[in-house]
Amino acid sequence: MTVLIIVIVIVLALLAWVAYSYNRLVRLRNESEQGFSGIDIQLKRRADLIPNLVESVKAYAAHEQGVFDEVAQARAATLSAQGVAGAAEAAGQTGAALGRLFAVAEAYPQLRASENFKQLQDELTDTEDKIAAARRYYNSVVQAFNTAQQTFPASLIAGTFGFSPREYFRLEDDHDRDPVAVSF
Amino acid sequence: MTTTATRSRSRSDVTLQQQIRANRFRTFLVLLGFGLLSAVFVGVIAVAYQPGVAGLVGIVAIVYGVVSWFAAGSIIASASGAHKVSKEDQPEVYRLLENVAIAAGIPKTPDLYMIDDPSPNAFAAGRDPEHAYVAVTTGILKLMDKRELEGVLAHEMSHVRNRDVRLMSLAAVLVGVIALAADLLMRITIFGGGSDEREGGLGAIGIAIGIVAAILAPIGASLLQLSLSRRREYLADASAVEITGDAEGLAMALAALRDDTTPLHTVTRATAHLYIESPLRDHQGLRSSLGGLFDTHPPLEDRIARLEQMGGFTLPAAPAARA
To answer: Does the ipTM surpass 0.85?
Structure first.
Protein backbone atom coordinates (compact mmCIF):
# COMPACT_ATOMS: atom_id res chain seq x y z
CA MET A 1 0.00 0.00 0.00
CA THR A 2 2.64 2.47 1.10
CA VAL A 3 4.81 1.48 -1.82
CA LEU A 4 1.91 2.04 -4.19
CA ILE A 5 1.30 5.53 -2.83
CA ILE A 6 4.97 6.39 -3.17
CA VAL A 7 5.00 5.15 -6.75
CA ILE A 8 1.87 7.15 -7.58
CA VAL A 9 3.33 10.30 -6.05
CA ILE A 10 6.57 9.87 -8.02
CA VAL A 11 4.67 9.29 -11.27
CA LEU A 12 2.50 12.34 -10.67
CA ALA A 13 5.54 14.46 -9.87
CA LEU A 14 7.20 13.26 -13.06
CA LEU A 15 4.13 14.05 -15.13
CA ALA A 16 3.88 17.51 -13.57
CA TRP A 17 7.52 18.14 -14.42
CA VAL A 18 7.04 16.97 -18.01
CA ALA A 19 4.01 19.22 -18.40
CA TYR A 20 5.84 22.18 -16.91
CA SER A 21 8.92 21.75 -19.11
CA TYR A 22 6.84 21.15 -22.21
CA ASN A 23 4.70 24.24 -21.60
CA ARG A 24 7.77 26.34 -20.98
CA LEU A 25 9.31 25.25 -24.27
CA VAL A 26 6.07 25.93 -26.11
CA ARG A 27 5.81 29.38 -24.56
CA LEU A 28 9.39 30.21 -25.52
CA ARG A 29 8.83 28.92 -29.04
CA ASN A 30 5.73 31.10 -29.40
CA GLU A 31 7.58 34.07 -28.01
CA SER A 32 10.44 33.63 -30.45
CA GLU A 33 7.99 33.36 -33.33
CA GLN A 34 6.32 36.55 -32.18
CA GLY A 35 9.73 38.10 -31.82
CA PHE A 36 10.57 37.29 -35.40
CA SER A 37 7.30 38.66 -36.73
CA GLY A 38 8.11 41.80 -34.75
CA ILE A 39 11.33 42.19 -36.76
CA ASP A 40 9.47 41.35 -39.95
CA ILE A 41 6.90 44.11 -39.38
CA GLN A 42 9.67 46.70 -39.07
CA LEU A 43 11.56 45.36 -42.09
CA LYS A 44 8.39 45.60 -44.19
CA ARG A 45 7.80 49.09 -42.87
CA ARG A 46 11.27 50.07 -43.97
CA ALA A 47 10.62 48.53 -47.39
CA ASP A 48 7.44 50.62 -47.65
CA LEU A 49 9.41 53.81 -47.08
CA ILE A 50 11.85 53.05 -49.88
CA PRO A 51 9.79 53.98 -53.00
CA ASN A 52 9.07 57.50 -51.70
CA LEU A 53 12.65 57.93 -50.63
CA VAL A 54 13.95 56.87 -54.03
CA GLU A 55 11.50 59.23 -55.77
CA SER A 56 12.66 62.19 -53.72
CA VAL A 57 16.34 61.46 -54.42
CA LYS A 58 15.65 60.81 -58.11
CA ALA A 59 14.23 64.32 -58.45
CA TYR A 60 17.73 65.68 -57.83
CA ALA A 61 20.04 62.88 -58.95
CA ALA A 62 18.29 61.03 -61.75
CA HIS A 63 21.59 59.82 -63.23
CA GLU A 64 22.52 57.66 -60.21
CA GLN A 65 20.60 54.73 -61.66
CA GLY A 66 23.00 52.13 -60.22
CA VAL A 67 22.13 53.04 -56.65
CA PHE A 68 18.41 53.07 -57.36
CA ASP A 69 18.58 49.60 -58.90
CA GLU A 70 20.50 48.32 -55.92
CA VAL A 71 17.93 49.73 -53.49
CA ALA A 72 15.06 48.30 -55.54
CA GLN A 73 16.70 44.87 -55.56
CA ALA A 74 17.26 44.94 -51.83
CA ARG A 75 13.64 45.95 -51.31
CA ALA A 76 12.41 43.08 -53.48
CA ALA A 77 14.67 40.70 -51.55
CA THR A 78 13.17 41.94 -48.26
CA LEU A 79 9.63 41.39 -49.46
CA SER A 80 10.31 37.88 -50.73
CA ALA A 81 12.72 36.74 -48.02
CA GLN A 82 12.11 33.35 -46.44
CA GLY A 83 13.09 32.40 -42.93
CA VAL A 84 15.33 34.11 -40.41
CA ALA A 85 18.57 33.82 -42.36
CA GLY A 86 16.93 35.05 -45.56
CA ALA A 87 15.36 38.02 -43.83
CA ALA A 88 18.65 38.86 -42.14
CA GLU A 89 20.52 38.73 -45.43
CA ALA A 90 17.97 40.95 -47.18
CA ALA A 91 18.03 43.33 -44.22
CA GLY A 92 21.80 43.62 -44.46
CA GLN A 93 21.55 44.23 -48.19
CA THR A 94 18.90 46.91 -47.68
CA GLY A 95 20.96 48.61 -45.00
CA ALA A 96 24.00 48.77 -47.29
CA ALA A 97 21.97 50.00 -50.29
CA LEU A 98 20.29 52.71 -48.21
CA GLY A 99 23.69 53.74 -46.94
CA ARG A 100 24.81 54.34 -50.51
CA LEU A 101 21.58 56.17 -51.34
CA PHE A 102 22.18 58.58 -48.48
CA ALA A 103 25.77 59.01 -49.55
CA VAL A 104 24.44 60.15 -52.94
CA ALA A 105 21.93 62.46 -51.24
CA GLU A 106 24.79 64.05 -49.28
CA ALA A 107 25.97 65.76 -52.47
CA TYR A 108 22.68 67.65 -52.94
CA PRO A 109 22.16 70.29 -50.24
CA GLN A 110 18.78 71.27 -51.70
CA LEU A 111 17.57 67.70 -51.39
CA ARG A 112 18.77 67.44 -47.81
CA ALA A 113 17.02 70.69 -47.00
CA SER A 114 13.67 69.60 -48.41
CA GLU A 115 10.95 68.96 -45.83
CA ASN A 116 9.83 65.76 -47.49
CA PHE A 117 13.30 64.24 -47.52
CA LYS A 118 13.94 65.20 -43.93
CA GLN A 119 10.73 63.58 -42.85
CA LEU A 120 11.51 60.38 -44.75
CA GLN A 121 14.97 60.30 -43.26
CA ASP A 122 13.50 60.77 -39.82
CA GLU A 123 11.05 57.93 -40.28
CA LEU A 124 13.78 55.70 -41.64
CA THR A 125 15.98 56.37 -38.62
CA ASP A 126 13.05 55.54 -36.37
CA THR A 127 12.39 52.31 -38.26
CA GLU A 128 16.03 51.33 -38.01
CA ASP A 129 15.95 51.92 -34.23
CA LYS A 130 12.89 49.73 -34.06
CA ILE A 131 14.51 46.99 -36.13
CA ALA A 132 17.41 47.04 -33.69
CA ALA A 133 15.02 46.86 -30.71
CA ALA A 134 13.04 44.00 -32.24
CA ARG A 135 16.26 42.11 -32.99
CA ARG A 136 17.42 42.54 -29.43
CA TYR A 137 14.19 41.06 -28.14
CA TYR A 138 14.14 38.24 -30.67
CA ASN A 139 17.74 37.22 -30.04
CA SER A 140 17.29 37.21 -26.27
CA VAL A 141 14.15 35.05 -26.50
CA VAL A 142 15.88 32.69 -28.93
CA GLN A 143 18.77 32.40 -26.54
CA ALA A 144 16.40 31.53 -23.69
CA PHE A 145 14.59 29.04 -25.94
CA ASN A 146 17.77 27.37 -27.16
CA THR A 147 19.27 27.23 -23.69
CA ALA A 148 16.10 25.69 -22.33
CA GLN A 149 16.30 22.97 -24.96
CA GLN A 150 19.94 22.18 -24.41
CA THR A 151 20.10 22.04 -20.65
CA PHE A 152 19.55 18.74 -18.91
CA PRO A 153 16.99 17.43 -18.00
CA ALA A 154 14.69 19.60 -20.12
CA SER A 155 16.74 18.47 -23.13
CA LEU A 156 15.01 15.09 -22.79
CA ILE A 157 11.63 16.76 -23.26
CA ALA A 158 12.92 18.88 -26.15
CA GLY A 159 14.26 15.76 -27.88
CA THR A 160 11.12 13.70 -27.30
CA PHE A 161 8.73 16.34 -28.59
CA GLY A 162 10.91 17.44 -31.48
CA PHE A 163 11.83 20.98 -30.49
CA SER A 164 14.73 22.38 -32.44
CA PRO A 165 16.95 25.40 -31.82
CA ARG A 166 16.14 28.62 -33.64
CA GLU A 167 18.53 30.79 -35.59
CA TYR A 168 19.64 34.16 -34.28
CA PHE A 169 18.93 37.22 -36.36
CA ARG A 170 22.42 38.37 -37.25
CA LEU A 171 23.52 41.07 -39.66
CA GLU A 172 26.78 40.96 -41.57
CA ASP A 173 28.21 44.06 -39.98
CA ASP A 174 26.96 43.61 -36.47
CA HIS A 175 27.55 46.83 -34.60
CA ASP A 176 25.05 46.11 -31.90
CA ARG A 177 25.84 47.47 -28.48
CA ASP A 178 28.27 45.42 -26.46
CA PRO A 179 26.69 42.64 -24.47
CA VAL A 180 26.43 43.23 -20.77
CA ALA A 181 26.45 40.82 -17.89
CA VAL A 182 23.17 40.83 -16.02
CA SER A 183 23.10 39.41 -12.55
CA PHE A 184 20.24 39.14 -10.15
CA MET B 1 34.98 37.38 -19.01
CA THR B 2 33.68 37.53 -22.56
CA THR B 3 31.95 34.19 -22.30
CA THR B 4 30.09 35.10 -19.13
CA ALA B 5 29.19 38.45 -20.62
CA THR B 6 27.81 36.89 -23.77
CA ARG B 7 25.98 34.15 -22.00
CA SER B 8 24.25 36.38 -19.51
CA ARG B 9 23.08 38.56 -22.39
CA SER B 10 20.10 36.26 -22.61
CA ARG B 11 16.88 37.35 -21.05
CA SER B 12 16.68 35.77 -17.62
CA ASP B 13 13.60 33.88 -18.61
CA VAL B 14 13.25 31.90 -15.42
CA THR B 15 13.73 34.97 -13.28
CA LEU B 16 11.12 36.89 -15.23
CA GLN B 17 8.56 34.11 -14.81
CA GLN B 18 9.38 33.87 -11.12
CA GLN B 19 8.88 37.58 -10.73
CA ILE B 20 5.53 37.46 -12.49
CA ARG B 21 4.40 34.61 -10.28
CA ALA B 22 5.65 36.28 -7.12
CA ASN B 23 3.84 39.44 -8.12
CA ARG B 24 0.60 37.57 -8.69
CA PHE B 25 0.88 36.08 -5.23
CA ARG B 26 1.68 39.42 -3.65
CA THR B 27 -1.22 41.05 -5.50
CA PHE B 28 -3.44 38.37 -4.00
CA LEU B 29 -2.00 39.15 -0.55
CA VAL B 30 -2.70 42.84 -0.97
CA LEU B 31 -6.29 42.13 -1.99
CA LEU B 32 -6.68 39.68 0.88
CA GLY B 33 -5.19 42.14 3.33
CA PHE B 34 -7.52 44.84 2.08
CA GLY B 35 -10.49 42.50 2.46
CA LEU B 36 -9.53 41.45 5.99
CA LEU B 37 -8.87 44.98 7.17
CA SER B 38 -12.14 46.16 5.66
CA ALA B 39 -13.90 43.33 7.50
CA VAL B 40 -12.30 44.38 10.79
CA PHE B 41 -13.25 47.97 10.11
CA VAL B 42 -16.85 46.99 9.36
CA GLY B 43 -16.96 44.80 12.46
CA VAL B 44 -15.75 47.62 14.71
CA ILE B 45 -18.36 49.98 13.33
CA ALA B 46 -21.08 47.37 13.73
CA VAL B 47 -20.20 46.98 17.40
CA ALA B 48 -19.61 50.64 18.13
CA TYR B 49 -22.43 52.14 16.09
CA GLN B 50 -25.15 50.38 14.15
CA PRO B 51 -25.13 47.44 11.76
CA GLY B 52 -26.75 49.67 9.13
CA VAL B 53 -23.78 52.00 9.04
CA ALA B 54 -21.43 49.04 9.05
CA GLY B 55 -23.23 47.53 6.07
CA LEU B 56 -22.92 50.76 4.20
CA VAL B 57 -19.20 50.96 4.93
CA GLY B 58 -18.86 47.33 3.84
CA ILE B 59 -20.53 48.08 0.51
CA VAL B 60 -18.34 51.12 0.05
CA ALA B 61 -15.24 48.98 0.71
CA ILE B 62 -16.32 46.35 -1.83
CA VAL B 63 -17.11 48.98 -4.46
CA TYR B 64 -13.80 50.70 -3.74
CA GLY B 65 -11.97 47.39 -4.12
CA VAL B 66 -13.61 46.62 -7.47
CA VAL B 67 -13.12 50.14 -8.77
CA SER B 68 -9.48 50.02 -7.67
CA TRP B 69 -8.85 46.84 -9.60
CA PHE B 70 -10.02 48.41 -12.84
CA ALA B 71 -9.14 52.05 -12.30
CA ALA B 72 -6.04 52.03 -10.10
CA GLY B 73 -4.06 53.55 -12.94
CA SER B 74 -6.46 56.43 -13.48
CA ILE B 75 -6.77 57.08 -9.74
CA ILE B 76 -3.01 57.32 -9.47
CA ALA B 77 -2.79 59.50 -12.56
CA SER B 78 -5.18 62.04 -11.14
CA ALA B 79 -3.58 61.82 -7.69
CA SER B 80 -0.15 62.59 -9.14
CA GLY B 81 -1.28 65.15 -11.72
CA ALA B 82 -0.34 63.04 -14.75
CA HIS B 83 -2.17 63.52 -18.02
CA LYS B 84 -2.04 61.52 -21.22
CA VAL B 85 -0.06 62.89 -24.15
CA SER B 86 -0.21 61.74 -27.77
CA LYS B 87 2.54 60.77 -30.15
CA GLU B 88 2.11 64.12 -31.91
CA ASP B 89 2.69 66.06 -28.69
CA GLN B 90 5.91 64.29 -27.76
CA PRO B 91 7.14 62.43 -30.84
CA GLU B 92 10.67 61.83 -29.59
CA VAL B 93 9.75 60.50 -26.18
CA TYR B 94 6.94 58.46 -27.63
CA ARG B 95 9.22 56.86 -30.22
CA LEU B 96 11.72 56.04 -27.53
CA LEU B 97 8.93 54.43 -25.52
CA GLU B 98 7.85 52.43 -28.58
CA ASN B 99 11.39 51.18 -29.12
CA VAL B 100 11.77 50.18 -25.51
CA ALA B 101 8.42 48.34 -25.62
CA ILE B 102 9.55 46.47 -28.73
CA ALA B 103 12.86 45.51 -27.15
CA ALA B 104 11.01 44.35 -24.04
CA GLY B 105 8.65 42.25 -26.15
CA ILE B 106 5.52 44.11 -25.07
CA PRO B 107 3.08 44.04 -27.99
CA LYS B 108 1.19 47.23 -27.14
CA THR B 109 3.21 50.33 -26.34
CA PRO B 110 1.95 51.69 -23.00
CA ASP B 111 0.39 55.15 -23.04
CA LEU B 112 2.64 58.09 -22.30
CA TYR B 113 1.65 60.42 -19.46
CA MET B 114 3.22 63.71 -18.48
CA ILE B 115 3.44 65.45 -15.14
CA ASP B 116 4.07 69.18 -15.26
CA ASP B 117 6.70 69.29 -12.56
CA PRO B 118 10.30 70.52 -12.68
CA SER B 119 11.44 67.66 -10.45
CA PRO B 120 12.87 64.82 -12.56
CA ASN B 121 11.02 61.57 -11.93
CA ALA B 122 9.03 58.83 -13.64
CA PHE B 123 6.70 55.98 -12.79
CA ALA B 124 4.58 53.28 -14.40
CA ALA B 125 1.11 52.21 -13.33
CA GLY B 126 -1.88 50.27 -14.57
CA ARG B 127 -3.66 46.95 -14.32
CA ASP B 128 -1.67 44.89 -16.82
CA PRO B 129 0.67 45.44 -19.79
CA GLU B 130 -2.31 46.27 -22.04
CA HIS B 131 -3.62 48.92 -19.68
CA ALA B 132 -0.36 50.29 -18.38
CA TYR B 133 1.07 53.73 -18.84
CA VAL B 134 4.45 55.31 -18.21
CA ALA B 135 4.46 58.78 -16.69
CA VAL B 136 7.39 61.18 -16.87
CA THR B 137 7.78 64.67 -15.44
CA THR B 138 8.63 67.62 -17.64
CA GLY B 139 11.70 67.96 -15.42
CA ILE B 140 13.14 64.60 -16.44
CA LEU B 141 12.75 65.44 -20.15
CA LYS B 142 14.65 68.64 -19.59
CA LEU B 143 17.37 66.98 -17.53
CA MET B 144 18.16 63.90 -19.60
CA ASP B 145 19.46 63.12 -23.04
CA LYS B 146 18.03 60.40 -25.24
CA ARG B 147 20.29 57.67 -23.94
CA GLU B 148 19.57 58.36 -20.27
CA LEU B 149 15.86 58.68 -20.91
CA GLU B 150 15.89 55.34 -22.72
CA GLY B 151 17.33 53.77 -19.56
CA VAL B 152 14.61 55.33 -17.42
CA LEU B 153 11.85 54.22 -19.79
CA ALA B 154 13.33 50.72 -19.89
CA HIS B 155 13.30 50.63 -16.08
CA GLU B 156 9.61 51.54 -16.13
CA MET B 157 8.96 49.05 -18.93
CA SER B 158 10.43 46.29 -16.74
CA HIS B 159 7.88 47.15 -14.07
CA VAL B 160 5.22 46.79 -16.74
CA ARG B 161 6.58 43.55 -18.11
CA ASN B 162 6.97 41.69 -14.83
CA ARG B 163 3.56 42.88 -13.56
CA ASP B 164 5.03 45.12 -10.89
CA VAL B 165 2.65 47.80 -12.10
CA ARG B 166 -0.51 46.05 -11.03
CA LEU B 167 0.84 45.21 -7.60
CA MET B 168 2.27 48.67 -7.07
CA SER B 169 -0.85 50.42 -8.34
CA LEU B 170 -3.20 48.31 -6.23
CA ALA B 171 -0.96 48.73 -3.21
CA ALA B 172 -1.13 52.48 -3.68
CA VAL B 173 -4.90 52.68 -3.86
CA LEU B 174 -5.79 49.86 -1.46
CA VAL B 175 -3.09 50.03 1.18
CA GLY B 176 -2.79 53.78 0.92
CA VAL B 177 -6.44 54.09 1.84
CA ILE B 178 -5.78 52.47 5.22
CA ALA B 179 -3.85 55.49 6.39
CA LEU B 180 -6.84 57.54 5.33
CA ALA B 181 -9.33 55.29 7.11
CA ALA B 182 -7.25 55.25 10.29
CA ASP B 183 -7.12 59.01 10.15
CA LEU B 184 -10.87 59.16 9.81
CA LEU B 185 -11.37 56.88 12.82
CA MET B 186 -9.16 59.08 14.92
CA ARG B 187 -11.17 62.10 13.94
CA ILE B 188 -14.44 60.39 14.85
CA THR B 189 -12.95 59.52 18.22
CA ILE B 190 -11.92 63.07 18.94
CA PHE B 191 -15.12 64.77 17.80
CA GLY B 192 -17.44 61.94 18.87
CA GLY B 193 -19.63 62.29 15.83
CA GLY B 194 -22.67 60.05 15.38
CA SER B 195 -22.99 58.87 18.99
CA ASP B 196 -25.51 61.36 20.37
CA GLU B 197 -27.99 58.66 21.32
CA ARG B 198 -25.53 56.69 23.38
CA GLU B 199 -24.75 58.94 26.26
CA GLY B 200 -22.05 57.79 28.58
CA GLY B 201 -20.82 55.11 26.20
CA LEU B 202 -18.64 57.49 24.28
CA GLY B 203 -15.61 57.12 26.53
CA ALA B 204 -15.33 53.35 26.15
CA ILE B 205 -16.18 53.36 22.48
CA GLY B 206 -13.75 56.19 21.87
CA ILE B 207 -10.94 54.26 23.50
CA ALA B 208 -11.80 51.13 21.50
CA ILE B 209 -11.79 53.03 18.23
CA GLY B 210 -8.57 54.76 19.15
CA ILE B 211 -6.91 51.42 19.79
CA VAL B 212 -8.15 49.98 16.50
CA ALA B 213 -6.91 53.00 14.61
CA ALA B 214 -3.57 52.76 16.32
CA ILE B 215 -3.35 49.11 15.29
CA LEU B 216 -4.55 49.63 11.72
CA ALA B 217 -2.10 52.31 10.68
CA PRO B 218 1.12 50.35 11.30
CA ILE B 219 -0.45 47.21 9.84
CA GLY B 220 -1.11 49.18 6.70
CA ALA B 221 2.45 50.41 6.61
CA SER B 222 3.89 46.92 7.15
CA LEU B 223 1.62 45.52 4.48
CA LEU B 224 2.97 48.08 2.06
CA GLN B 225 6.48 47.09 3.07
CA LEU B 226 5.66 43.40 2.75
CA SER B 227 4.21 43.67 -0.71
CA LEU B 228 6.80 46.05 -2.07
CA SER B 229 10.30 44.88 -1.38
CA ARG B 230 13.08 47.21 -2.33
CA ARG B 231 14.60 44.35 -4.29
CA ARG B 232 12.21 45.08 -7.13
CA GLU B 233 14.03 48.30 -7.94
CA TYR B 234 17.30 46.40 -8.39
CA LEU B 235 15.47 43.84 -10.51
CA ALA B 236 13.90 46.53 -12.67
CA ASP B 237 17.33 48.11 -13.14
CA ALA B 238 18.79 44.76 -14.22
CA SER B 239 15.90 44.08 -16.61
CA ALA B 240 16.24 47.57 -18.03
CA VAL B 241 19.84 46.76 -18.90
CA GLU B 242 18.70 43.60 -20.66
CA ILE B 243 16.19 45.64 -22.64
CA THR B 244 18.50 48.44 -23.78
CA GLY B 245 21.81 46.61 -23.56
CA ASP B 246 23.17 49.82 -22.07
CA ALA B 247 24.00 49.73 -18.37
CA GLU B 248 25.94 52.97 -18.56
CA GLY B 249 22.97 54.93 -19.92
CA LEU B 250 20.78 53.98 -16.98
CA ALA B 251 23.61 54.57 -14.52
CA MET B 252 24.11 58.07 -15.91
CA ALA B 253 20.38 58.66 -15.60
CA LEU B 254 20.39 57.58 -11.96
CA ALA B 255 23.44 59.75 -11.31
CA ALA B 256 21.57 62.70 -12.80
CA LEU B 257 18.64 61.98 -10.48
CA ARG B 258 21.01 61.71 -7.54
CA ASP B 259 22.53 65.10 -8.26
CA ASP B 260 19.19 66.80 -8.61
CA THR B 261 17.45 68.02 -5.50
CA THR B 262 14.20 69.51 -6.81
CA PRO B 263 11.39 68.01 -4.74
CA LEU B 264 8.27 66.69 -6.42
CA HIS B 265 5.11 68.65 -5.63
CA THR B 266 2.26 66.19 -5.84
CA VAL B 267 3.27 63.11 -3.93
CA THR B 268 1.81 61.20 -1.01
CA ARG B 269 3.00 58.34 1.14
CA ALA B 270 0.66 56.11 -0.85
CA THR B 271 2.25 56.74 -4.25
CA ALA B 272 5.90 57.23 -3.29
CA HIS B 273 6.90 53.64 -4.08
CA LEU B 274 5.83 53.99 -7.71
CA TYR B 275 8.55 56.37 -8.80
CA ILE B 276 11.94 55.45 -10.27
CA GLU B 277 13.56 57.45 -7.51
CA SER B 278 12.01 58.14 -4.13
CA PRO B 279 10.17 61.45 -4.54
CA LEU B 280 10.34 62.04 -0.78
CA ARG B 281 13.64 63.79 -0.37
CA ASP B 282 15.92 63.42 2.62
CA HIS B 283 15.14 66.79 4.08
CA GLN B 284 11.41 66.18 4.12
CA GLY B 285 9.88 65.35 7.48
CA LEU B 286 8.22 62.05 6.78
CA ARG B 287 11.28 60.28 5.58
CA SER B 288 13.81 61.59 8.06
CA SER B 289 11.53 61.01 11.05
CA LEU B 290 11.19 57.35 10.21
CA GLY B 291 14.85 56.90 9.36
CA GLY B 292 15.65 54.52 6.53
CA LEU B 293 13.18 51.95 7.80
CA PHE B 294 10.30 52.95 5.58
CA ASP B 295 12.31 53.93 2.53
CA THR B 296 10.60 52.67 -0.58
CA HIS B 297 13.76 52.74 -2.67
CA PRO B 298 17.32 51.53 -2.19
CA PRO B 299 19.91 54.30 -2.22
CA LEU B 300 20.78 55.51 -5.71
CA GLU B 301 24.49 55.05 -4.97
CA ASP B 302 23.88 51.34 -4.51
CA ARG B 303 21.90 51.04 -7.67
CA ILE B 304 24.55 52.89 -9.65
CA ALA B 305 27.27 50.68 -8.18
CA ARG B 306 25.44 47.55 -9.27
CA LEU B 307 25.03 48.90 -12.78
CA GLU B 308 28.73 49.75 -12.90
CA GLN B 309 29.49 46.19 -11.96
CA MET B 310 27.17 44.81 -14.65
CA GLY B 311 28.54 47.00 -17.41
CA GLY B 312 32.15 47.05 -16.30
CA PHE B 313 32.53 50.85 -16.25
CA THR B 314 32.92 53.57 -13.65
CA LEU B 315 31.06 56.83 -13.59
CA PRO B 316 32.74 59.95 -12.27
CA ALA B 317 32.13 60.29 -8.52
CA ALA B 318 29.31 62.39 -7.15
CA PRO B 319 29.99 66.12 -6.79
CA ALA B 320 31.75 66.79 -3.51
CA ALA B 321 29.10 69.29 -2.45
CA ARG B 322 26.72 66.49 -1.72
CA ALA B 323 28.98 64.54 0.64
So the answer is: no
